[in-house]
Amino acid sequence: MAKGRKSNASTADSNIVASSQTNMTRRRDPMTPPPATGVTLGPKKIINAAPSLQNSKPGLYPNARLTIPRAIGIAGAKLEAACPGLFSGLLPALFSWGLTVGLIFGGCCSNVYTLEAIVKDEPDSGFLLTFTQFVVTALFTWPAHFSASHPPFYLKPRAVPLTRWIPNIVLFWVVNVLNNLAFRYRISVPIHIILRSGGSVTTMLVGFCWGNRYSRVRVISVALLTVGITLAAYSDAQSKGKTNPSLSDSPNSTASFVTGLLILLIAQILSAVMGLYTQKIYSQYGSHWLENLFYIHSLSLPLFLICLPFLPFLRLQVARLASSPSIFIFPSTPLPKAYLWKVSPFFFAPFHHLVPYIKLAVPITQIRIPSLLAILGANALTQYLCIRGVNMLGARTSALGVSIVLNIRKLISLLISIWLFGNQLPLGVLAGAGVVFGSGALYAWDGGSDRGRRMGRKKSKSY
Questions:
Q1: How does the average pLDDT of the chain come out, rounded?
Q2: Residue 48 burial (CB count, 10 A)
Q3: Residue 9, in any domain of the structure
Q4: How far apart are CA 432 and CA 122, in angstroms?
């Protein structure tokens, strides 16, 4: 019996040694699958080496070199730690505001420049201008709303009901058609700017009828701004001699000019109503300005079919622009200033003193582009940039604030035009510029004080 117990003990000891060797083998080989005998291995331990790496010295790891992306990341982390919210709030906000201001003052100012270049040669092309601008803007905004999973129109679901956009669509179409149609009635671009500078006044008057109330400081700032932009535009028109002296030559001329004034007045009132209505939609459904931009342009295109009697006139406008002097571009051939001046004196006048020639290189033999059609394409593109910036601004501020910024932009357009064409800056333009910028600063100061008072009321209520 003792001998049997001893043999059993030796057998058990050998089994324990064998199982321990097997376990050691499994520990050495991490790719070995778990045993099928029902024995489960414990959870795999994860070693956190972050503390040791943080406390390590660079000299111990020669391969961990400080690269430019790593240095930028370290600097960004330190800035974020020192100024919380810098990258998550402040810089994106500054970039967004900078983009908005850049689109408005860059796109809109260049748009006025191309508009004047076309209207000076073809004043009856307002309807074609409106149609081209709507088509280009609709095409540029369509990809952001395309969705292959939503047939039959393949458009993403709207954040705002379509019925709420319909009044905005009709108002926007009518305002743009009227503004461009006014050029047929002896309305020059400076006079156009003068009359449209009353946008802040009409916005305030319509807003008052809408139920909005404005402080005395804002009323004074809007009145001063209107006086300043009117003075600057009128002085510019006087200095350039663009005021039409033949308005009083015949009753027909006077009647045509008065008709143009009435058209612009109606457009200003409708524009003020549209701005307040858009502000109401944004306050109810959120600031979906890109959706607004797409639908007011794309769904306005069928409205041009209403103007079927104007279609032959539209074809005539296209034919006139296509018959303008062409721009010939040859490979690596400089275009002299004299040739550009002959093609379009008004459009190329600002660049007459900037460069001795313009050198263009293309990989084909020859390109023939009618100059006014090329300017028309530039006008439509800059109009898209301008209206995109205006809608971005409308999603951030009130209708009156948008009108204030646009009036300042009109003055900048005049100043840039004067500088590019080499004209002397009249005293009236300088005075108007001072009044406009002063009134804009007054309006901004009153807006900041209003926000401060509202924040003070909220804090007092919370206590």
A1: 71
A2: 7
A3: no
A4: 30
